[in-house]
């Protein structure tokens, strides 16, 4: 696998929390982190989530064209 590597951390919340912002502070947002390897063509990549200091399975992501 070759490309540019990026570490990420995301706060993920439910749609209800987006429409009711106070709900997020009560329920708490889920955090996800991992690594993305962007392909040299810059239109796709492979990512893995990091959980409990272990890498998950590889998943593909694609850039959407407008």
Describe the protein.
With 66 residues, this protein is α+β, with helices and mostly antiparallel strands. The chain has one domain (4-62). The protein has 2 helices and 5 strands; from the N terminus they run E-H-H-E-E-E-E. The protein has helices spanning 15-19, 21-27, and strands at 4-12, 30-38, 44-51, 54-55, 59-62. 18% of the residues lie in helices and 48% in strands. Strands 1, 2, 3, 4 and 5 form a 5-stranded antiparallel sheet that branches. The chain is globular, with a radius of gyration of 15 Å.
* Broad shape: globular
Global structural class: alpha+beta
Total number of domains: 1
Main sheet? 5 strands, antiparallel
What fraction, in percent, of the residue positions are helical?
Answer: 10-25%
Order of helices and strands: EHHEEEE
CA-CA gap between termini: 27 Å
Task: Count the E strands.
Answer: 5
Would you identify the regions where 5 or more consecutive residues have pLDDT less than 50? Answer: none
Tell me the Rg in angstroms.
Answer: 15 Å
Count of separate DSSP helical elements:
2
Q: Mean pLDDT, nearest integer?
A: 79
